């Protein structure tokens, strides 16, 4: 980042015409390591799962988060709302489906 500004990652959601419909802000010095769309048995709701890494001075991130966003609609547009988060040791490089 320039002029001692901290980098801040985000997840940008684009519509079918490649227009940006939402931007999900992350914490300062947090970057996305993996993304996945999932559903759970018995729950018709679709979710976006974001795995992140919190950057620091070490070459390998020591902390990360798993963010769970629920997909919904608002005024005819798809929206994602944060429904859960989990702080973890280390970066999240891959998210795999499970039941």
TrEMBL record:
<dbReference type="GO" id="GO:0005634">
    <property type="term" value="C:nucleus"/>
</dbReference>
<dbReference type="InterPro" id="IPR015943">
    <property type="entry name" value="WD40/YVTN_repeat-like_dom_sf"/>
</dbReference>
<protein>
    <recommendedName>
        <fullName>RSE1/DDB1/CPSF1 C-terminal domain-containing protein</fullName>
    </recommendedName>
</protein>
<dbReference type="InterPro" id="IPR004871">
    <property type="entry name" value="RSE1/DDB1/CPSF1_C"/>
</dbReference>
<dbReference type="GO" id="GO:0003676">
    <property type="term" value="F:nucleic acid binding"/>
</dbReference>
<dbReference type="Pfam" id="PF03178">
    <property type="entry name" value="CPSF_A"/>
</dbReference>
<feature type="domain" description="RSE1/DDB1/CPSF1 C-terminal">
    <location>
        <begin position="9"/>
        <end position="99"/>
    </location>
</feature>
């Amino acid at each position: 980042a320039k002029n001692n500004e901290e980098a801040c990652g985000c997840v940008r959601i684009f519509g079918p015409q490649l227009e940006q419909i939402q931007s999900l802000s992350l914490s300062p010095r947090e970057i996305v390591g993996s993304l996945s769309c999932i559903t759970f048995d018995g729950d018709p709701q679709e979710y976006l799962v974001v795995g992140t890494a919190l950057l620091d001075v070490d070459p390998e991130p020591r902390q990360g988060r798993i963010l769970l966003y629920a997909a919904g609609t608002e005024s005819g547009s798809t929206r994602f709302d944060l429904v859960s988060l989990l702080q973890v040791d280390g970066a999240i490089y891959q998210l795999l489906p499970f039941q």
